[in-house]
């Protein structure tokens, strides 16, 4: 990090070169560089947020599709229909095709509701406040957990049921700050659209090209601390023969 700072001061590196260069160029409210430990914490967080969460969601999708034939068949049907509607021979996804993957993304949304990749997060109270009879002094760390609203029957009817349709024109609108898979407000994840495109692209190619089943049919999901298939999600996989 010291070498990077020296390179920036000499003009060898720009703040736009990469994320580390950007963090090194930031200044706090006193126009001072960020401390090394602050930069390190944010850099590690970005790694986790940009890689681990998406990898977790895709693993959960493969886990779910191998266990639920009805959901799998609907996802497969949607993806194959997209391929059939192509007017060209080029076998590449387009932006327009990704926008058609509405059911597949609702499955992902429901997975993140029931098994959120991030259980929650800490927030620091910036001033003395009270919430539902509890006094929260300034400076305290407050932890919010997604399960508090994701599994609340007053917000999501029958929350223990896997139901992707709840994200399709819900008769009861989902209140703000209750579906928190990507956070909310000023802390809403800046990579949410990238995660959507990445997940849909991977799942499209996976269901298009392969058939698979779990080796451990009763494998549960544990947390380490992120959701993780308890036995490593071993699967039997083979090429899909019928592409028509």
Tell me briefly what this model is.
The protein has helices spanning 2-9, 19-25, 36-67, 69-84, 95-99, 102-114, 147-150, 192-209; strands at residues 120-124, 129-131, 134-136, 141-145, 210-214, 221-223, 227-229, 235-239. Strand 2 (129-131) and strand 3 (134-136) form a beta hairpin.
Radius of gyration: 22 Å
Mean pLDDT: 89
Structural class, judged by helices and strands?
A: alpha+beta
Order of helices and strands: HHHHHHEEEEHHEEEE
Instruction: Determine the strand fraction and express it as a percent band.
Output: 5-15%
Kindly report how far apart the N and C termini lie: 54 Å
Which word captures the global form?
globular
Helix content: 40-55%
Total DSSP helices: 8
What composes the largest sheet? 2 strands, antiparallel
Poorly predicted runs are none
Q: Biggest sheet, strands in spatial order?
A: 1-4
Count the strands? Answer: 8
Give an overview of the whole structure:
The protein is α+β, with helices and mostly antiparallel strands and 244 residues long. The protein is built from eight helices and eight strands, in the order H-H-H-H-H-H-E-E-E-E-H-H-E-E-E-E. The protein has helices spanning 2-9, 19-25, 36-67, 69-84, 95-99, 102-114, 147-150, 192-209; strands at residues 120-124, 129-131, 134-136, 141-145, 210-214, 221-223, 227-229, 235-239. A two-stranded antiparallel ribbon has the order 1-4. A hairpin with a 2-residue loop joins strand 2 (129-131) and strand 3 (134-136). Helix 3 (36-67) packs across helix 6 (102-114) and helix 3 (36-67) packs parallel to helix 8. The chain is globular and about 60 Å long. The N and C termini lie far apart (54 Å). The model has no long low-confidence stretch (mean pLDDT 89).
